[in-house]
Amino acid sequence: xxxxxxxxxxxxxxxxxxxxxxxxxxxxxxxxxxxxxxxxxxxxxxxxxxxxxxxxxxxxxxxxxxxxxxxxxxxxxxxxxxxxxxxxxxxxxxxxxxxxxxx
Length: 103
What we know:
Layout: H1 2-18, H2 23-38, H3 41-44, H4 46-64, H5 68-97
């Protein structure tokens, strides 16, 4: 009886830790990476853009492995790096538009 009780407690604990997939966090990360890609962040802010892609892949892997807390953490990092890359890219593109070319 005691073994059964411990087994049931273990199942409940594992199920409770499983949580739910961070769909909203992942969707926000995908939108941020896409927005960065749309402003050529891969060219103008390659380091942060590559980090955003890396963390997005890690988030996908963590979700597949049902490590939902890690997946949410990676999605947030992907979003942050993508947003940073987007701003850097827009800034660098704007600065290059204002460069005066002398004959």
